[in-house]
Amino acid sequence: MCAKNAMEEFEALLKESFEIDTPEEGTVVKGKVIAIEAGQAIVDVGYKMEGRIDLKEFANPGEQPNINVGDEVEVYLDRVENARGEAVISREKARREEAWDRLEKAYAAETRVDGAIFGRVKGGFTVDLGGAVAFLPGSQVDVRPVRDAGPLMGMKQPFQILKMDRRRGNIVVSRRAILEESRAEQRAEVIGNLTEGQTIDGVVKNITEYGAFVDLGGVDGLLHVTDMAWRRVNHPSEILAIGETIKVQVIKINKDTHRISLGMKQLQADPWDAVERAYPLGSVHKGRVTNITDYGAFVELEAGVEGLVHVSEMSWTKKNVHPGKIVSTSQEVDVMVLEIDSAKRRVSLGLKQTQRNPWEVFAETHPVGSTIEGEVKNITEFGLFVGLDNDIDGMVHLSDLSWDQRGEDAIQNYRKGDTVKAAVTEVDVEKERISLSIKALGDDSFTDAVDGVKRGSVITVAVTAIEDGGIEVEYNGAKSFIRRSDLSRDRADQRPERFQVGDSVDVRVTNIDPKTRRLGLSIKAREIAEEKEAVEQYGSSDSGASLGDILGAALKGGN
Fold first, then answer.
1. Which of 34, 139, 172, 372 could pair with 163 as two cysteines, CB 3.0-4.6 Å apart?
2. Residue 105 — very low, low, confident or very high, per pLDDT cuts 50/70/90?
3. pLDDT tens, position by position, 306-329
4. What residue stretches are annotated with the S1 motif domain (predicted)?
5. Degrees (nearest 5) of the Cα angle 239, 255, 202?
6. Each residue's pLDDT tens digit, 192-243
7. Do 98 and 53 meet the contact criterion of CB atoms below 8 Å apart?
């Protein structure tokens, strides 16, 4: 009976053991630490199975392991039995599985997760998220580039999961997103306490070409270079230094972008309030050249008050030169106030107005008819330009070069750089023109030659040349040409060859042209005039006397 009972009990126990599920490999099971020896923890995972785990698997990065005999832990069952008859278990894999479950929930809910940076890899860092290892790109460490990440290593802090793939075991996290979020909250709080027009102290955080960023206690404001002072500031570093505490006024707050514009000059008196009283039109003041452009130069009259000397108001004589050829930066100059526009904060200044108009000075010192001497500066198709005092020029027109030569021929006698003398014939101050004449200083042979000769006069000329179209004659050195049709009243005698060089011929003056310097002469006109005079004196053809009788009587009377 006893043997039978014992067998039944054994069968029941065997059946019970078969009914109990054996733990599946590749799952997380609960175990109990039953011993710690040789740097390992011996864990009883039940089912009459024990396994060993290195103590370092129970420690967080940078920390000592915290495990004691009797602690219950979850472990990952890799294999039920190894060659030594022990279960192959891992605390690290269990933590990883647990962590992935937790992180997937956090990623779906877009909530923060805690972790610690424990290593550096190419392009960033590795982060322990409580059992799962994530990648932290270098650009996601901070809102600004981090040169030394040493102080951040091993420090437990929040991260935001950007991307995760359990199958590939990839997790990407960001520390920067957390900082930006907290910073935005802080900015919103600080901005909520600010009002436009408020005066506040700030610390200069950064300086750029266009201004400075000022820390107002958790939020930055931009102090633009044009709002630093009423005067021109070329670079913010002229008046500010990083770390300096300054007093600024809140000019504008953009609630949408959280951008704050600041000003320093708004806390100072505006010099433009007194500009019209201090600088009346027409007054002359000393100023300093602050900037030179293609269209003029800016001159500072006082701190915060600048005026523009337009290029057209810089010099009486230098019309087409760059302003930098007339003045230089930082040079002190005398300027005249020409116009003030307080609304646009503009002052128009004149540089040349502080000096006398050189054309006025020339007109006073060189009246019409006076003689000047100067250098030929330029030769053009219509005359010569002669350099005069005070950088001004006078022009000698082609027609004023010579009495005897055509202007086009006479100008060939001059070269650039020649020194010439000329008479002043006209000064037009408004048009800035001075007319000169070289021929006015020489003898006018033509005027002398025809002195006393009038139109209709009969003069005696000498034949100097015989040509097909007529004859060339000379009177007191002035040459003229008598055309074939003017050689005689009778067509039969209108032959040039009937004259010889050296013959003296009486001719009638039909025209005197001082411009072409020519006398209009005609033998035919003289003969017609003599005939008319004979008719008037000795009878009329109507009385019955023939023309031959009249001319005969005239000739006889003349004799």
1. 172
2. confident
3. 899 999 888 888 878 899 998 999
4. 26-92, 110-176, 197-265, 282-352, 369-439, 456-524
5. 25
6. 778 888 888 888 888 898 898 988 877 788 899 888 887 778 888 888 888 8
7. no
Cβ 66 vs Cβ 34: under 8 Å: no
Both tokens assigned to 169:
């075991």
Nearest by Cα to 115 from 74, 59, 173, 169: 173
Q: Is 451 exposed, middle or buried (0-12, 13-18, 19+ CB in 10 A)?
A: exposed
Residues contacting residue 273 through CB under 8 Å, at least 6 positions apart: none
Strand order in the sheet with 72-79: 49-54, 40-46, 27-37, 72-79, 88-90
One domain, residues 419 and 455 = no
Decide which of 216, 233, 267 is a domain's last residue: 267
Give the span between the Cα atoms of 422 and 404, in whole angstroms.
17
Instruction: Please state, as a whole number, how many other Cβ atoms lie within 10 Å of the Cβ of residue 218.
Output: 12
Query: Which amino acid appears at position 252 of this protein?
Result: K
135: CB partners within 8 A, 6+ apart: 121, 124, 125, 126, 127, 170, 171, 172, 173
Q: Tell me the average pLDDT across 513-536.
A: 82
Residue whose C-alpha is closest to residue 434's, from 516, 359, 536, 341: 359
Tokens representing residue 439 in the block: 């021929």
Same domain, yes or no: 382 and 319: no
On whether both 210 and 292 belong to a single domain, the answer is no
Do 74 and 87 touch, CB atoms closer than 8 A?
Answer: no
At residue 22, the pLDDT reads 58
Query: Is 431 in contact with 439 (CB distance < 8 Å)?
Result: no
Going by the DSSP 8-state scheme, the letter that residue 456 receives in this structure is T
As a whole number of angstroms, the distance between CA 410 and CA 423 comes to 17
For the question of whether the overall pTM of this predicted structure is more than 0.70, the answer is: no
Of 50-54, 119-123, 410-414, which range is least confident? 50-54
Q: Is the Cβ–Cβ distance between 86 and 43 less than 8 Å? A: no
Strands 346-350 and 305-310: parallel
Relative orientation angle of helices 547-558 and 523-538, to the nearest 10 degrees: 90
User: Are 457 and 386 part of one and the same domain?
Assistant: no
| Residue 337: per-residue pLDDT | 92
Establish if 544 belongs to a structural domain: no
Task: Please compute, for residue 142, the number of CA atoms within 13 A of its CA located in the half-sphere on the CB side.
Answer: 8
**Close Cβ partners of 167 (under 8 Å, ≥ 6 residues apart):** none
Contacts (Cβ under 8 Å, ≥6 apart) of 279: 285, 301, 305, 337, 340, 347
Let me know whether 296 and 244 are in one domain: no
Domain of 169, in residue numbers: 110-180
Q: Are 49 and 20 in contact (CB under 8 A)?
A: no
Which amino acid type is present at position 362?
F
Please say whether the beta carbons of 91 and 45 come within 8 A.
Answer: no
Residue finishing a domain among 76, 108, 140: 108
pLDDT digits (tens, 9 = 90+) for 157-197: 899 999 988 788 788 999 888 887 777 777 777 777 788 88
